[in-house]
Design a protein that fits this description.
Elements: E1 2-5, H1 20-28, E2 32-36, H2 47-52, E3 56-58, H3 61-67, E4 70-72, H4 79-82, E5 90-93, H5 101-110, E6 113-116, H6 131-148, E7 170-174, H7 178-189, E8 193-198, H8 201-211, E9 215-219, H9 222-231, E10 234-237, H10 252-257, E11 263-266, E12 287-290, E13 293-296, H11 306-327, H12 330-334, H13 336-339, E14 342-345, E15 348-349, H14 352-358, H15 365-371
Parallel strand pairs: 1-2, 1-4, 2-3, 4-5, 5-6, 7-8, 7-10, 8-9, 10-11, 11-13
Antiparallel strand pairs: 6-14, 12-13, 14-15
Helix pairs in contact: 6-7
Amino acid sequence: MRIGIPKEIKNHEYRIGMTPAGVRELVSHGHSVMVQTQGGADIGFDDAAYRAAGADIVASAEAIFAEADMIIKVKEPQPNECKMLRSNQLLFTYLHLAPDPDQARLLKASGCTAVAYETVTGARGGLPLLAPMSEVAGRMSIQAGAHHLEKAQGGNGMLLGGVPGVQPAKVCVIGGGVVGTNAARMAVGMGAQVTILDRSIDRLQQLDDLFQGRVTGIYSTQDAIERYALEADLVIGAVLIPGASAPKLITREHVAAMKKGTVLVDVAIDQGGCFETSHATTHQEPTYVIDDVVHYCVANMPGGVARTSTMALTNATLPYALALADKGLQALRDDPHLCNGLNVHAGHITYEAVARALGEDYIPAHEALAERV
């Protein structure tokens, strides 16, 4: 198979779809790989490294989209990239379609087969291709939150861990999954007072075992959100419903009632955000203020640590990329967990939560695949 890896074009997005080590694995399976020139240069993966791994270096994204059988990316394709996709072409990347009807419309119109990292499932449960970026984003959320608590950044001037004789900042993490667990790990390590809200008693028990009393786990209700989020200095939105739009758990009224200089970090912004006042920002302009509350809603947080993120992402995606390259669409038919990643195929929406969020017709993935063998 001919595989193309274009340079990412979103604001301050320095990740790339595959490391040179990953490319070498694809080439060793007999596939040819095209990498756009300078695609990974900003994070230490230069053209020479990709050539040494067996890739062809090409000058433009247009050439990659025109010639490749499969496109491997990191972020969702932008409108001009969607328009370069074509029928029978595989796209393997993060999509986050639920809050993005324009992208869904363009992908349907292209006729391509789009497999989303974020809805591929694991044999032991979980979302193995979302997990590494969730780990990064969870850890970064505390790093970003601590910085923006500084008075010069608009925060309330609290040091996350305090000092002897001065109480630490209060951190409220909404959601105890991969993002929330990693956020709590970092916040505890920095000495903050941490509360995690989650609706799963089993998960709260696991977190209690993990943190050995250093984190307070609370069953998530509207009352709990109002109590713990409104008294917090830093609130992390870490709620995920796979493939679907994130629920709005923090309302405008909640924000208006928060302390001046509170910082909100919405890690769910790729899925529309879990704060009613959230809208996507960039690494160039990461925050805005509503009712004296700082909102950090960067839609590609892991892009801020692009080298670490690219290596972690390649570790997770490579086995699936090899399966798709080796077997094409048959890989989706053979592996129900990989097939759960199929969001768009031949003009159909094939993931139910996405279709529901967009108000589109839904065709189960196996039925859509059976239409075109």
